[in-house]
């Protein structure tokens, strides 16, 4: 009986430790991969959601959610302040995990939200004139900007909130910014 208690305690400690350490390591790998894809021109934060991430993955082969946020995105025609990929039903490549890497292979669904501060644009903007037409952001007469497909992978709707344009769209495929390129 005593051996059983000790064994159970060790298992609980190992699982608890894995639930603390493994998600942090996976998030760091995701952040590293995204930073490489955007050529380190953004601050990147990944979050695999709430406890128990590892146990759910072992049982279902998925993590329930993954949120990747890019802030202060530089080097784009459109000065994007924040892009957030909120993904659900995220499948990860098991062989990549065995190699201590993280590769998103599939998602059930996701929402992409991008925010652009009107003050960062080079011209005065009338908030009432802001529209999205397909993959272009129309900011008024003579000022139309292309939306970067890597950051806004779907045709968004737009809304002006205070001094920001908020672009939102839904996806059902892994965004290219999370896809590992073949090397």
Task: Chart the SSEs and their pairings.
Blueprint: H1 2-37, E1 43-47, H2 53-60, E2 62-71, E3 82-92, H3 94-98, E4 104-106, E5 109-117, E6 131-133, E7 136-138, E8 144-146, E9 157-161, E10 164-171
Antiparallel strand pairs: 1-2, 2-3, 3-4, 3-5, 5-10, 6-7, 7-8, 9-10
Count of β-strands: 10
Which whole number gives the mean pLDDT?
80
Task: Give the C-alpha Rg.
Answer: 20 Å
Assign a percent range to the helix content.
25-40%
What is the count of DSSP helices, taking H or I runs of 4+ residues?
A: 3
How far is the N terminus from the C terminus? 53 Å
* Largest sheet descriptor: 7 strands, antiparallel
Order of helices and strands: HEHEEHEEEEEEE
Question: What class do helices, strands and sheet pairing give?
Answer: alpha+beta
Sheet-strand content, in percent, reads 25-35%
Low-pLDDT regions:
none
Oligomer, anyone?
single chain
- The global form is elongated
What would your notes on this structure say?
With about 180 residues, the chain is an alpha+beta fold. It is about 25% helix and about 35% strand. It is built from three helices and ten strands. The chain has helices spanning about 1-35, 55-60, 95-100; strands at about 45, 60-70, 80-90, 105, 110-115, 130-135, 135-140, 145, 155-160, 165-170. The strands form two sheets. Strands 1, 2, 3, 4, 5, 9 and 10 form a seven-stranded antiparallel β-sheet that branches. The longest helix has about 35 residues, at about 1-35. The mean pLDDT is about 80.
């Amino acid at each position: 009986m005593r051996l059983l208690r000790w064994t159970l305690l060790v298992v609980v400690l190992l699982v608890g430790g894995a639930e603390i350490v493994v998600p942090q390591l996976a998030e760091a790998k995701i952040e590293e991969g995204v930073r490489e894809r955007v050529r380190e021109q953004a601050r990147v934060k990944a979050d695999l959601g709430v406890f128990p991430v590892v146990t759910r993955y072992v049982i279902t082969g998925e993590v329930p959610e993954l949120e990747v946020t890019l802030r202060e995105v530089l080097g784009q025609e459109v000065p994007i302040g924040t892009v957030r990929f909120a993904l659900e039903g995220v499948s990860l490549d098991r062989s990549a995990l065995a190699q201590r890497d993280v590769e998103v292979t599939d998602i059930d669904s996701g929402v992409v939200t991008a925010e652009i501060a009107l003050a960062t644009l080079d011209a005065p903007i009338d908030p009432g004139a802001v529209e999205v037409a397909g993959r272009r952001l129309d900011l008024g007469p003579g000022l139309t900007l292309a939306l970067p497909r890597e950051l806004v992978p779907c045709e968004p709707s737009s809304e002006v909130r205070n001094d920001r344009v908020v672009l939102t769209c839904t996806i059902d495929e892994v965004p290219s910014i999370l896809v590992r390129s073949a090397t």
